[in-house]
Amino acid sequence: MIGAPGYAKPNTIPTDGFDIRFGRRSSDRRRIEWTPCGSYKAASFSWDWKDPAAFSIDLKPDHRLVPYMTGLRRKAVHVQMTHNGIPFTGRVMTRKVAGKPGRETVTLSGFDNKFQLKRALAWVNPLFPPELQIGLTGKQDIMAGEPDFVLKYFLAKNMIRLHKPIYAALPLHQVTNDLPDLADVNSLDDLLGLVTDSLAQMCVVSARFTPLDELFKLTRDRLDFGYRMDLWDGYGDRPQVFNTSGLSQLQSVIDATSDNFLNFLNPNNYLGLTDPGSWGQMDRAGYIFDTRAKRDMRHIQWRTDGGQIENYELEETHADATRAIVGGRAPEILNQVIEWAANFAIQLLITAIAPGLGLGFVVGDLFDDIFFAYQQFFDEDLEDDIGIDDAFGEVFADNTAAWSLDSYAVGKGALKDHSGSEALRLTVDTGNPDGYRFGALDGSNKRYDVGDIHTVYDRGTTAEQFVSAVTISDERDGRMVEVPTLGEPKRLGGPWERAISGLQNFGQLSRGLANNR
């Protein structure tokens, strides 16, 4: 038990506030040059398991860094803060000044660096200009394999094209279930189950000018992992990454938007590739992308009858669909096979009736998108639990080609989106020395991070849920307010989170219509 019910423990942990720093890239582009923020009126920072997390900082109008923030439209200002060993790195996106003259509040807000994934598209072929987009896999760029590898594959090749210092973390690792123990295979059913489970942990991703965050979403949600985008400021040990800087310099020779376009004699084009020792290290300040698996921390138990929870908000939503339809278009090869078969059958009939007439192919595209144009997915267990008489029916998931490489991910993703949800948002007392706190592990068994699986006890009922987000606020009143969210909320998010989600959904619709064919 965290504390005796009804007796809140005093706040005995000193609160010094956030140690915030702002920074800009140096003239040689190799480092981020930092300056401390110092005092502030209020601040809040969030960490999220998978989406860009927001921050907000309020300053007085006479703060020494107010001039530093002017001209934000054409200036990249980084923000960095570490709380209990867990870093937050992001970008100032908005500067707002409001209030009576001389007594204004300057509010700086923005997102962490996962926002970078929203501003990079996965081209069909990054080597070719947008006017000519075709690759080895046809009209889409397709890759299959372990999720960590596949996501980093798309990230690396498109950051080469953009010449961005955004790198994939090494070594590659597994984010799904542990490898099976072959000693447990005692029958054919066990073997078939092993093969089925192994295939289910793989992913097939196809891209056609899709933003990376949307491209990764279906795989991420289906296989239940998260990711991070950290900033290395150029100081200290160099992180181990797949360094694409040399490849990016070489690719810029065929990039019409680059200053290096058709400059074949520039020695920098190939010098970066001649030093194998630099291939796995960052050569300048930049961003590091990595996937994250959930962590079993079920020994952490939140109790509604304990003293650390000040208040909470619980929301549970009912499943509004148990079946999902994907399609509208049949795979092109099936349309072609059906057309050939129909023409062949008609030719045989015409030859039998009127030999030598020779009408040629008469069907054309008459049977296109009729056979195998749609595909149905359904959650049988969920429908049985609710009862087939009362369970809601079906939704149309997407116009992705049915029976294609990515229709499985789309259909399963739609089922998950409509399967209902349960989320718990806690406001906890961070001043309790015996309580749990957000932070890096320190041997106390009291620290937790996003992605950790916890136990929740409420009125005799125990449930397991993972930490999907954490927000920590400091109003400079001598205490910090810590709000962890357990589960995946659909409506518990704040205005920034809901705005990001809304824009993303609209973008998915418009791009789906544009790339329908």
Give the tags:
4 domains, 10 helices, four-stranded mixed sheet, 22% helix, 517 residues, Phage tail proteins - horseshoe like beta roll fold
General description of the model:
With 517 residues, the protein is α+β, with helices and mostly antiparallel strands. It folds into four domains: 93 residues; 176 residues, no CATH class; 98 residues, Roll (Phage tail proteins - horseshoe like beta roll fold); 95 residues, no CATH class. Helices cover 22% and strands 31% of the residues. Strands 1, 2, 3, 4, 5, 6, 7, 16, 17, 21, 24, 25 and 26 form a 13-stranded mixed β-sheet that branches. Strand 25 and strand 26 form a beta hairpin. Helix 2 runs antiparallel to helix 4. The longest helix has 22 residues. The chain is globular. The N terminus and C terminus are likely disordered.
Describe, in short, the structure shown.
This protein has 517 residues and is α+β, with helices and mostly antiparallel strands. The chain has 10 helices and 26 strands.
What topology emerges from the helices and strands here?
Elements: E1 21-25, E2 32-36, E3 42-48, E4 54-59, H1 66-69, E5 78-83, E6 86-98, E7 105-112, E8 121-122, E9 141-145, H2 147-162, E10 166-169, H3 188-200, E11 203-207, E12 210-211, H4 212-223, E13 226-232, E14 241-242, H5 245-251, H6 268-271, E15 286-292, E16 295-303, E17 309-317, E18 323-327, H7 332-353, E19 374-378, H8 380-386, E20 394-398, H9 407-417, E21 421-429, E22 437-438, E23 447-448, E24 452-458, E25 461-474, E26 480-487, H10 495-514
Parallel strand pairs: 10-15, 16-24, 18-20, 22-23
Antiparallel strand pairs: 1-2, 1-5, 3-4, 3-25, 4-7, 5-6, 6-7, 8-12, 9-11, 10-14, 13-15, 17-21, 18-19, 21-26, 24-25, 25-26
